[in-house]
Specification:
Elements (H helix, E strand, L loop, with lengths): L8 H4 L9 E5 L2 H14 L3 E8 L4 E7 L4 E3 L5 H15 L17 H7 L12 H8 L6 E5 L2 H13 L6 E5 L5 H11 L7 E5 L7 H11 L7 H10 L1 E3 L8 H9 L8 H7 L9 H10 L3 H12 L3 H6 L1 H8 L5
Helix pairs in contact: 2-3, 6-13, 7-8, 7-9, 8-9
């Protein structure tokens, strides 16, 4: 039921002269229920519903306890809308879903309270939870793009802490320099990017100057607004606060083997890994020795390192960006 139900019936009619119609009272059970419920909601003494036939259209109406009879042409808009809502509700088939746009329009506060019982849910905004409850489809309004599966696991952990894991789509783009081409592509396609973030690990292109240079190479041109578009692309890119001259795998490994951590098998294995020929081995060797799936091992690792004070600093910028979107 849209807000068009708020339009007074008299404004829908083209009345150039005196309007004649025949009136009859509705004596069925549904009509009695509607009259009784409308009386309660609007605090008016309706006795019965009436039907007014103009010859071209049938209008609903009421008879009050004082004997006054009038159609929807003479109703206030709030009164008219309540009766239309009740008519829809009581005549709906079983298991129907009825959506009412802005149910509070034209209703004073007492009528609104009386019109929304425990079986009625009033939503004051649209979010993913509402869409899921209505359609069964889980929308993912937050789009995050990362270099690799390690960064993907980090984002999942942050999202889990913020209770928004179900709202996030995480995509992979590979090498760090691809981040700038990806951000540029969003701008070139004029996509809505309010809830889109491209994250680099932080071991390359650490400064704003380095990032801006990469963006300008990925998004070049001579048009008047090129500087603005380049700035838009740059604003989509964030990074972790990684210490200087250290790779992300080694840093996560260092948080894992911190002496303050309670001893567990996964930590024992991590402490046995001291020198590697490839930084990815700091994590991959743990996965191989645990003989479990990569995702399962990463969940264990993240559950441990996320308790470190350094974790908050490391993920600060990304966390704040996600925190601002928890209500989507």
């Amino acid at each position: 039921m849209g807000i068009d139900t708020c339009l007074p019936e008299i404004e829908r009619q083209r009345i150039n002269s005196y309007l004649n119609f025949t009136t009859k009272e509705l004596d069925n059970g549904v009509a009695k229920k509607i009259a009784k419920k409308a009386s309660y909601i609007l605090n008016k003494e309706y006795k019965v519903l009436t039907e007014h036939d103009t010859g071209k259209k049938t209008l609903i109406g009421v008879r009050t306890s004082s004997g006054l009879i009038y159609s929807s042409l003479s109703m206030g808009t709030g009164e008219q809308r309540v009766i239309k809502i009740l008519d829809t509700l009581y005549n709906a088939t079983k298991y129907s879903l009825i959506l009412i746009d802005e149910i509070d329009l034209l209703l004073h506060i007492d009528a609104l309270k009386n019109n929304t019982s425990t079986k009625t849910f009033v939503y004051d905004s649209i979010n993913t939870g509402l869409i899921y409850s209505l359609t069964g489809a889980q929308e993912k309004p937050i789009k995050v793009y990362v270099e690799d599966t390690l960064s993907q696991a980090i984002i999942r952990q942050i999202a889990k802490e913020l209770n928004i894991l179900s709202k996030i789509h995480i995509g992979l783009f590979g090498a760090a320099h691809n981040a700038f081409a990806l951000a540029a592509s969003f701008i070139l396609r004029d996509e809505e990017c309010t809830n889109t973030l491209v994250i680099i690990d932080g071991d390359e292109y650490r400064t704003e100057e380095e990032k801006k240079k990469q963006v300008c190479e990925a998004l070049s041109g001579t048009e008047d607004n090129i500087s603005s578009r380049q700035q838009q692309a740059l604003s989509l890119i964030s990074q972790y606060e990684l210490p200087l001259n250290i790779k992300p795998e080694k840093y996560i490994h260092s948080l894992l083997i911190d002496p303050a951590n309670e001893m567990r098998e996964i930590i024992q294995i991590a402490r046995q890994i001291r020198a590697v020929d490839n930084d990815h081995s700091y994590i991959n060797d743990i996965v191989n020795r645990m003989e479990d799936s990569y995702d399962a091992v990463m969940r264990d690792i993240m559950s441990i390192v996320s308790k470190s004070d350094k974790w908050v600093v490391y993920t600060n910028d990304v966390r704040n960006w996600l925190q601002d979107r928890t209500n989507l």
